[in-house]
């Protein structure tokens, strides 16, 4: 009887594989790496003393996190890691810490909004918290945060002002950076959860304007679009954190892939899907042989230039989601396989920090032109690595996110 059943299952499997146009997808189990990330998260958690002192980076000569305060643009990533680690492990201890560190971020809105990073700071942290434990206080706080972010929107230009401080400092009357695409997720969420419809409209208009300005004809990206405030026209593209204005800064391209994928998920507008795929194709076409990008694809110092693992993490997480939004089996496999390949390489001894320091990963680059965070461990690399592992686990288990 059991034998008969087994033959039946094999016959069914053969029949399904003959009729379905499924393309080959890479298998890669996230389980052990999730355990690694949860163990390291607990170890860092137990070494920290204050909820408003948050891990940001570790240089190659160090072993422990350098910390920043809640107003730093990266402040949401550590609480975000705690939420993801709780999701991966169910640990009550991690949950209590996630709540404590998220609570400490409430002070972010005590000062006037002075940049676009509210989404990174509060959606990666409190947004994940609300997704996992549905907390009314978090929800209300996120709605207020979305309204605050929207105050930076300039209807004449059609985008959110990313860096108010650069208006005078760089003489950029209105400026919007590709990273800002990530912050739109907070606006989309708010519009669906009791916020104004206007928040949705702002997010869509922002994505459209950036599509026509920050994205070059060859689907590489500028970092910054500078606009005139009188008539709103696009004045120039700049690549502030990259090698040159005309170069392809790796993390910026990653923000674009991730941001336009999320924007397609929220709008169903195929223009955004098309852009997300083309940005991903450009990223993959230019990846070096060893599979992890240099900090800028056009740095003439390559192959001696530093890598940016964080760009690979952001791009992997974005491509995993992209694979779930497609129906064509070959395209689904293309982006899933590309993401898995990067995660596989990031999960080797070359990139894993193991016991070298407190982070999950080594070899990220923050702001090369400033000489800061070059070839370091950086908190957002860990955040997007953990997010990508969780996404992969869900896709492997359920076929979707
Ligand atoms: N959002 C700033 C960066 O990617 O460095």
SSE blueprint and pairings:
Layout (H helix, E strand, L loop, with lengths): L1 H18 L11 H17 L6 E5 L7 E3 L8 H13 L2 H13 L13 H16 L2 H15 L2 E2 L4 E2 L4 H5 L4 E4 L6 H9 L4 H17 L10 E4 L6 E5 L11 H18 L2 H17 L22 H17 L3 H18 L30 E2 H20 L3
Helix pairs in contact: 2-3, 2-14, 3-4, 3-5, 3-14, 4-5, 5-6, 5-8, 8-9, 10-11, 10-12, 12-13, 12-14
Report on the structure:
With 401 residues, the protein is mainly α. The chain has one domain (25-398): Glycosyltransferase. It is 53% helix and 7% strand. The strands form three sheets. The chain has a three-stranded antiparallel beta sheet. A hairpin with a 4-residue loop joins β3 and β4. α8 (184-192) packs antiparallel against α9. It is globular, with a radius of gyration of 21 Å. Glycine is lined by residues 179, 241, 251, 366.
Keywords for this entry:
401 residues; mainly alpha; Glycosyltransferase; three-stranded antiparallel beta sheet; 14 helices; disordered N terminus; binds glycine
Q: Give the spatial strand order of the biggest sheet.
A: 2-1-8
Q: What's the CATH architecture name?
A: Alpha/alpha barrel
Q: How confident overall, as mean pLDDT?
A: 94
Q: What's the gyration radius in Å? A: 21 Å
Instruction: Give the count of helical stretches.
Output: 14
What percent of residues are in strands? 5-15%
Terminus-to-terminus distance: 37 Å
CATH topology heading: Glycosyltransferase
Q: Look at the structure and give the CATH class.
A: Mainly Alpha
The proportion of residues forming helix, as a percent range, comes to 40-55%
SSE sequence, one letter per element = HHEEHHHHEEHEHHEEHHHHEH
């Amino acid at each position: 009887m059991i034998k008969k059943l087994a033959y039946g299952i094999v016959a069914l499997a053969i029949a399904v594989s003959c009729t379905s146009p499924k393309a080959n997808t890479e298998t890669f189990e996230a389980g052990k790496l999730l355990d690694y990330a949860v163990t390291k998260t607990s170890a860092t958690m137990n070494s920290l003393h204050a909820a408003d002192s948050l891990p940001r980076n570790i240089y190659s000569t160090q072993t422990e996190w350098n910390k920043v305060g809640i107003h730093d643009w990266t402040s949401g990533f550590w609480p975000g890691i705690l939420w993801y680690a709780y999701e991966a492990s169910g640990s009550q201890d991690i949950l209590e810490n996630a709540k404590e560190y998220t609570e400490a971020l409430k002070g972010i809105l005590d000062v006037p909004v002075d940049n676009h990073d509210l989404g990174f700071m509060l959606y990666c942290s409190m947004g994940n918290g609300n997704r996992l434990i549905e907390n009314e206080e978090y929800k209300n706080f996120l709605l207020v945060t979305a309204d605050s972010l929207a105050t930076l929107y300039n209807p004449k230009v059609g985008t959110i002002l990313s860096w108010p401080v650069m208006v005078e400092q760089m003489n950029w009357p209105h400026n919007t950076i590709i990273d800002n695409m990530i912050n739109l997720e907070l606006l989309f969420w708010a519009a669906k959860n009791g916020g104004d419809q206007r928040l949705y409209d702002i997010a869509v208009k922002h994505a459209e304007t950036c599509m026509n300005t920050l994205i070059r004809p060859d689907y590489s990206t500028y970092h910054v679009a500078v606009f005139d405030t009188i008539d709103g026209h696009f004045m120039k593209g700049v690549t502030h954190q990259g090698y040159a204005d005309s170069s392809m800064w790796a993390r910026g391209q990653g923000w674009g892939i991730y941001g336009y994928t999320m924007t397609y998920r929220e709008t169903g507008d195929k223009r955004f899907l098309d852009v997300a795929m083309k940005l991903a194709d450009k990223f993959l076409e230019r990846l070096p042989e060893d599979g992890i990008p240099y900090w800028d694809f056009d740095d003439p110092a390559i192959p001696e230039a530093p890598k940016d693992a964080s760009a690979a993490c952001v791009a992997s997480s974005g491509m995993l989601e992209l694979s779930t939004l497609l129906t064509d089996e070959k395209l689904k496999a293309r982006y899933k396989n590309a993401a898995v390949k990067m995660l596989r390489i990031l999960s080797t001894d070359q990139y894993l920090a193991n016991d070298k320091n407190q982070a999950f990963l080594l070899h990220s680059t923050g702001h090369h032109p400033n000489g800061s965070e070059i070839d370091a461990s950086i908190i957002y690399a860990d955040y997007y690595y953990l997010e990508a592992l969780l996404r992969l686990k869900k896709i492997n288990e359920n076929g979707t996110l």
